[in-house]
Each structure stands twice: as structure tokens, then as C-alpha cells.
Write a structure and sequence with these properties.
With about 475 residues, this protein is mainly alpha-helical. Helix content is about 60%, strand content about 5%. The structure holds arginine.
């Protein structure tokens, strides 16, 4: 058979599947069905998968040693050219797989046409995306770790810094800033373990499933699985080429990461406002207004908050794409790539932004302290004090409620009331109450695992450092 492409418009013999066609694909349909504009980013995984497949064919006696060497060298040469920007992608060749395979044949001749023996684009693409997602999970996990370490650094530095803790966004009890930052750390820590869990489940090799039913060649699926760093071959060929649940899982992990980042963002945005004024973000993470000269807007956290919607949108898109698909492969699955790639890019960018920005957050400790003082944050401490002196908690609650109402009327914090003022509400209140009413006393009293006491924060930082070091 000639290697020369047929005249365009005659049939599709210039493609890798045109044999049975008698007219060319409609120009619009060609563009509509092509994925090369976006799946070309999987070229490295595609080449890696093809090399493993070629080596397996050689071991199985399907390719000679020379043929295998020609294919491997040809593929590596193509990779070099792609990376140097010397490769022309063709929409007529539909996708990354056929672009690379055609180019291989152009370069090494007939032998190139043997690469696809015992394989289909269905198991090829299923392999490529798994490899791609696995590589990206590793990058995202590294970014997460970088951000987590930054949080530990500031948490340690700010273990004694007092701020108001909130429920319902109303001042609740005093906490330390370090403790607050460790709450963020914990969310990311679960995100990290979810990512690893997803990686573990996806790390099975679909290669060898071929189009859907397997292949009649004496392939060795363990060999390719091992070459590609997979833990084992997948167990069922139909499932291997059709399900994209691993992409959905990554999207779900990503949506949670973004949901967490959106919560941090919301707090940073509030805290930089004139009304809170708890932190300063360096100018390099902010932008100005074209009309209001005084403005310094927290654009980075705002954008991250906004992008969380985009990632969760992709999760829903992937779920809906998979829903109701009959076995096995369907072209629908080509639609997995754009949401998947975009959510990966978004995650990487947002984690990078946070990893760079978090170490630069400057707490305004005095403002935090004053805010904690303003909101009757030690009211619970006064109630606990009364309980320790023998009152029932509900009675203590009532007495403190009255004391707070009196403080509001007098425009004084509980710690600013005199002993005789406090004793109007209960005569069991003694001089020792003032140690309890101070913000320092309040945080120090919460001295158990998970509590806000400064030494607990320092201990938690040490534990978390060991966790991270063991990764
Ligand atoms: N570009 C296709 C995809 O992304 C590759 C697999 C095509 N398989 C097929 N039978 N048309 O899913």
C-alpha cells in the first residue's frame, strides 16, 4: 500500500481509519470532532505509553528488536521536536494519538504502522489520562505541602497572638491566631490524603483492554503496567476503556480544596477591610481602583474565591458527562479533557498564589487584640468560673448574661467592671475572677489537645511538622 495520502475530499485514507470511507469528513465535522487542540498537552504521557507498548510487543515477539528500537527512537525524537516547538499539529489527524503515530510513520516508514498492533485509541487514551492525572496529582500534592508548611511557620510565630474567635461571625471566645491558621492546615491535610487516595485508586493500567474486549495478541499487561509505574493491570477491559471516575474523583478532591481556599479567601478579604483591619496583605498581591485612589483590593483571594465555582462546575460537568453512558467507550468521553485540564490548571494556580501569599500575611496584632476585648469574648470564662465555685451551669449562664447586659450599658468589657460591680450579680465572685476574665487567661485555660492555648498550638505545629516530613 502506498504511503501517499489520498487527495483531500476523495476519502479519508489520509487519516488512520479512512479505509472504509467513501467520502471525506465534512470540514465542520472534522473540526467539531477533533480534540488535538486540547489533548496535545498529553503528548508526553502518550509517548510514554507508546514506548511501553512497543517494548511489550518486542518481548512478546510481535516486533523485532530493530523495529522496537526504531519506534522508541522515533517517538523520543518526536518528543524532542514537540518540546522545541518544531511540531505541527494537524486537525485532520484528529487527536494527539493519531498526530504522533502518523508522524512516527512519516519518520520511520512502515515500522511506524506496527505500533498500534494489539492496541486501540480507547485503551491508549484511558492510559494517557491516568498518567496525566497521576503526574498532576503529584504536582498539586507538592503545592499543598508547600502551603501547609507556610501555615505551620506562621502558626508557630503567632502562637501567642490573640484574636477574637467567631461563631455566626459574631465574637465568640478569644483564640490565638496560630490556632486559627492550624484550622486551615487541617482542612488541607484532609485534602492531601484525599488526593493520595484518588491516586492510589487510579493507578491501574488499562493498557491491553484495546478497543473494549482485549486483544488476540499474546500481550503482557503486567509488563506494560510495570513500565508505566502502575500498581497492576485493571481487571476488566470494558470498564478500563469507559469509566472516567478517576477524573471525577480528582475533580471532587479539587472542589474541596477550592472550597477550603474560598473559605480562607473570604476571611482574608474580611480581615483586610477597614472594618476588621486584622491583617495587611503586601501590595504585590493586591490591585488598585481606577477611580478610587485610596483603594487597595485583595484581588488574589477574591479571584481564588471566584475560581472555586469554576472547579466545582467542572466536577458537575464530568459527572453529567459520565451519567448514563452505556458500556464501553463512547465519544462523549472526549469531553472529559477540557474540564479536567482547566480544573488542574486552576488548582495549580490557586495553590501557587496561596503558597506565595500566605507567608507574606502580616497580622495587625493590636487590632486583633482590641477586637477580642470588645466582644465580651470571656463571658464563657466567667460562667465556667462560677461553675467551678459550685453554681449550676444554667444559673451561671443567667448571671453572666446579666453582667454582659450591664457591661453593654456601661460601655465596659467584663474585665473592666469592678469587683463590686460584678458582685451585684453574684456574691460568690471574688478577686480571683480577673485572671479568668483576661484574654490571656482565657486562651491559656484551653489547654488540651486541639485547644487554643499557646503551648497546645506549639505542640500541634510540632506534630504537624513531623506529619509533613514523613511525606
Ligand atoms: N480523542 C479520543 C478521546 O479523547 C481518543 C479515543 C478515540 N476513540 C475512538 N474510538 N474514537 O476520547
Amino acid at each position: 500500500m502506498s504511503n501517499k495520502p489520498a487527495a483531500p475530499g476523495q476519502n479519508n485514507s489520509h487519516t488512520l481509519w479512512g479505509g472504509r470511507f467513501s467520502e471525506a469528513t465534512d470540514a465542520f465535522v472534522q473540526r467539531f470532532t477533533a480534540s488535538v487542540s486540547f489533548d496535545q498537552r498529553m503528548y508526553r504521557q502518550d509517548i510514554r505509553g507508546s514506548i511501553a507498548h512497543a517494548r511489550m510487543l518486542q518481548q512478546a515477539g510481535i516486533l523485532t528488536d530493530d523495529e522496537c528500537t526504531a519506534i522508541v527512537d522515533g517517538l523520543l525524537g518526536i518528543q524532542t521536536d514537540i518540546e522545541a516547538g518544531n511540531f505541527t499539529w494537524s486537525v485532520a489527524l484528529e487527536d494527539v494519538h493519531m498526530n504522533i503515530e502518523s508522524e512516527l510513520t512519516k519518520r520511520i516508514g512502515l515500522t511506524g504502522k506496527k505500533l498500534h498492533t494489539g492496541r486501540s485509541r480507547n485503551d491508549q487514551v484511558a492510559t494517557d489520562i491516568r498518567l496525566y492525572v497521576r503526574d498532576e496529582i503529584d504536582v498539586i500534592a507538592t503545592e499543598l505541602t508547600r502551603l501547609q508548611s507556610a501555615l505551620l511557620d506562621i502558626a508557630e510565630r503567632e502562637a501567642d497572638t490573640i484574636m477574637p474567635g467567631f461563631t455566626h461571625l459574631q465574637t465568640a471566645q478569644p483564640i490565638t491566631f496560630g490556632h486559627h491558621l492550624l484550622a486551615w492546615f487541617e482542612m488541607l491535610d484532609r485534602d492531601y490524603s484525599r488526593l493520595l487516595d484518588c491516586r492510589k485508586r487510579l493507578n491501574k493500567s488499562p493498557l491491553g483492554a484495546a478497543a473494549l474486549a482485549g486483544t488476540s495478541y499474546p500481550i503482557n499487561r503486567h509488563f506494560t503496567a510495570e513500565q508505566l509505574g502502575f500498581d497492576a493491570p485493571t481487571r476488566n477491559s470494558l470498564d478500563s476503556v469507559s469509566d472516567r471516575d478517576f477524573a471525577i474523583e480528582l475533580a471532587a478532591c479539587g472542589s474541596l480544596i477550592m472550597t477550603h481556599l474560598s473559605r480562607f479567601s473570604e476571611e482574608l478579604i474580611l480581615w483586610t477591610s477597614a472594618q476588621f483591619d486584622f491583617i495587611d496583605l503586601p501590595d504585590r498581591f493586591c490591585t488598585g481602583s481606577s477611580i478610587m485612589p485610596q483603594k487597595k483590593n485583595p484581588d488574589v483571594p477574591e479571584l481564588v474565591r471566584g475560581k472555586s465555582g469554576r472547579v466545582t462546575g467542572h466536577l458537575i460537568a464530568l459527572l453529567m458527562l459520565m451519567k448514563s453512558q452505556p458500556l464501553a467507550y463512547n465519544k462523549d468521553n472526549q469531553e472529559d479533557k477540557e474540564p479536567l485540564f482547566d480544573l488542574i490548571d486552576t488548582l495549580r494556580d490557586c495553590l501557587k498564589a496561596y503558597g506565595d501569599m500566605v507567608p507574606a500575611i502580616k497580622p495587625k496584632k493590636e487590632n486583633m487584640y482590641l477586637a477580642a476585648k470588645k466582644g465580651y469574648a470571656t463571658a464563657t470564662d466567667l460562667a465556667d468560673y462560677l461553675v467551678k465555685k459550685g453554681l449550676a451551669f444554667r444559673d451561671a449562664h443567667e448571671i453572666v448574661g446579666k453582667s454582659v447586659a450591664y457591661g453593654i450599658q456601661q460601655k465596659k468589657d467584663l474585665s473592666e467592671l469592678s469587683l463590686s460591680e460584678l458582685q451585684q450579680f453574684s456574691d460568690i465572685i471574688g478577686d480571683d475572677v480577673f485572671a479568668v476574665l483576661s484574654l490571656e487567661g482565657s486562651v491559656q485555660a484551653r489547654d488540651h489537645i486541639g485547644g487554643t492555648a499557646p503551648n497546645q498550638v506549639r505542640a500541634a505545629v510540632a506534630t504537624c511538622r513531623t506529619l509533613i516530613a514523613a511525606r
